[in-house]
Design a protein that fits this description.
The protein is α+β, with helices and mostly antiparallel strands. It has eleven helices and ten strands. Strands 2-1-5-4-3 form a five-stranded antiparallel β-sheet, with helices on both faces. Strands 7-8-6-9-10 form a five-stranded mixed β-sheet, sandwiched between helices. Helix 2 packs antiparallel against helix 3, helix 2 packs parallel to helix 6 and helix 3 runs antiparallel to helix 6.
């Protein structure tokens, strides 16, 4: 087409030049002569060919434009797949590390965020481990949506939340569209990965497929992290009472003392021992003794604040650490614990030498009673023996 167009253009130019030369030499018979008619025909033909050529060029341009768009989409898909492969690699490598469940959730959410840069990403666990990680704007996931994920365990793609009454809560939060992929363990839904847009993003099936591809290794990694946390918890807790064991207490106690010393804050520690426990255990049997230990540990745990530490120090001996707590305040808490244990009705406790199952407590505090953890424990232990000497069932300070 281009060659024909150029050829006709050359003929028109030559013919026009010849005709103008003849006109200049007065060799043209008349305006209606063959020369003018032929020139008109050639020029008309040129115009037609030019139009056809222009249409052809436009079609080729449109084809190239579509090819360009396809290539751009392919490049975008390749970038997303590259990020996805990097993300899956990170997830697989995480199996080799010892990360907490919170770290796993946050790392996976941050990896997904690399693909969906403008959106909010949520990983939500269901069941007993009801934890979640959010990267981006905070979002409240309603029970209805979580229920749908459990009852209809298949990926979800919604590009207009305002059109669906069940997503009215999301629309009110400014969410215009979202995709969700559940992840499973032994055919049971244990959580979901969601990407939520506030910018009217139109999600595609490709986006949903990328999210679905992440869900399989995610479930394995979460299961691994959960198992690691449970194993770690078992290693630092006493199997009978479910409070910290002595080994864990000794690992963190000196560190806690150093922290309060550096911040120039008080700290109190108490040693507690069940009165006449051997007598109770021998008389009522080990199951009754085990129950008493568990119940006393439970009373202690429920009556201290979150930063306090309670541990089983020995057979019937317990230790409680009160960071940032004066001796006076520690006495108040320990008196509450002592009274609640005394008031609790243990099986056959009336057979005890004092007619009740009770505890004795000794308290020492930093800085007045010692500078190190070992000094404080020794002073608290001395105070405990004084409590025993004073008739038991009491709180004595160093």
């Amino acid at each position: 087409m281009l060659l024909l167009r150029n050829l006709i253009f050359l003929i028109v130019v030559l013919y026009t030049f010849i005709l103008n030369t003849l006109l200049f030499l007065n060799k043209v018979p008349s305006p209606n002569s063959f020369y003018f008619i032929s020139l008109t025909v050639i020029i008309s033909l040129f115009i037609v060919i030019e139009l056809v050529y222009t249409i052809s060029i436009n079609k080729q341009f449109q084809i190239l434009q579509r090819v360009k768009e396809k290539l751009e989409l392919s490049v975008k898909d390749m970038k997303n797949e590259s990020v996805l492969l990097e993300m899956l690699t990170d997830i697989i490598e995480a199996f080799e590390g010892e990360m907490s469940l919170e770290e796993v959730l946050n790392n996976i959410a941050e990896s997904i965020k690399k693909i969906f840069k403008q959106e909010s990403v949520i990983l939500q666990l269901l069941g007993e481990t009801f934890k979640k990680a959010i990267i981006g704007k905070p979002i409240e996931i309603t029970d209805e949506i979580l229920g749908n994920v459990v009852l209809k365990p298949s990926p979800m793609l919604i590009n207009n939340t305002s059109s669906f009454p069940e997503y009215n809560n999301l629309a009110k939060q400014g969410i215009t569209s979202f995709i969700i992929a559940p992840f499973h363990h032994k055919r049971k839904v244990i959580g979901m990965i969601g990407v939520f847009s506030f910018e009217k993003r139109v999600f595609t099936l490709k986006d949903l497929e990328l999210l679905r591809m992440v869900s399989a290794p995610t479930s394995l990694l979460i299961e691994n992290a959960d198992l690691f946390e449970k194993t770690k918890l078992l290693s630092i807790t006493d199997a009978l009472t479910n409070i910290y064991n002595r080994r864990y207490f000794e690992n963190i106690f000196e560190t806690t003392v150093n922290e309060v010393r550096n911040s120039k804050q008080p700290l109190s520690v108490c040693m507690a021992d069940i009165d006449h426990f051997k007598h109770y255990n021998d008389l009522n049997g080990h199951p009754a003794g085990d129950y008493a230990l568990k119940k006393i540990a439970e009373i202690m745990r429920k009556n201290i604040k979150g930063s306090d530490i309670v541990a089983r120090y020995g057979g019937e001996e317990f230790v409680i650490v009160f960071p940032y707590t004066t001796k006076e305040n520690a006495v108040i808490v320990c008196e509450t614990i002592r009274k609640k244990i005394k008031d609790f009705r243990f099986n056959n406790e009336e057979s005890q030498p004092n007619g009740d199952l009770t505890i004795s407590i000794g308290i020492a505090s930093y800085p007045e009673d010692g500078e190190t953890g070992q000094q404080l424990l020794k002073k608290a232990d001395i105070a405990l023996y004084k409590a025993k000497e004073q008739g038991r069932d009491c709180v004595v300070t160093a």
